[in-house]
Write a structure and sequence with these properties.
alpha+beta, 2,3-Dihydroxybiphenyl 1,2-Dioxygenase, domain 1, about 35% strand, 3 helices, about 130 residues, 9-stranded mixed beta sheet
Length: about 130
């Protein structure tokens, strides 16, 4: 069911500073900031030869990232995103196995313009998992 790792997401308190650090200190290619109001975040992607790192900061006070940063003021790993071929089939298989899909269970459009779902971290050893259809 799982494909390759699409990205690792890191919540940061200052997206511009984090992007500059990856670009200027680590020499990485970093995308322009992209607001995603439906998800309550602004993101940039650090492009790597084999995957991406997503840096995200809250977009508004109701952002789920704001709560994460209250507990982790310096930021930290937020989630890992795996690719799946059929997100609805993956959702149905996971829920039949007892895994919980966050939200209403319907995919939203993610930063890459593709359907995404998030799985409850308590079902996966404390790790928030995002699935993205490819």
């Amino acid at each position: 069911m799982l494909g390759r790792v699409n990205h690792i997401a890191i919540a940061v308190p200052d997206l511009i500073a984090a992007a500059a650090s990856y670009r200027d200190t680590l020499g990485a290619t970093v995308s322009a900031p992209q607001p995603l109001p439906e998800h309550g975040v602004t993101v940039v992607f650090v492009e790597l030869p084999n995957t991406k790192v997503e840096l995200l900061e809250p977009l508004g006070d109701a952002s789920p990232i704001a709560a994460f940063l209250e507990k982790n003021p310096s930021g930290g790993m937020h989630h890992i995103c795996y690719e799946v071929e059929d997100i609805l089939a993956a959702r149905d298989r996971l829920t039949a196995s007892g895994a919980r899909v966050l939200g209403n269970g319907e995919p939203k459009t993610g930063a890459h313009g593709k359907p995404v779902l998030f799985l409850h971290p308590k079902d996966f050893f404390g790790t928030l998992i995002e699935l993205e259809q490819v």
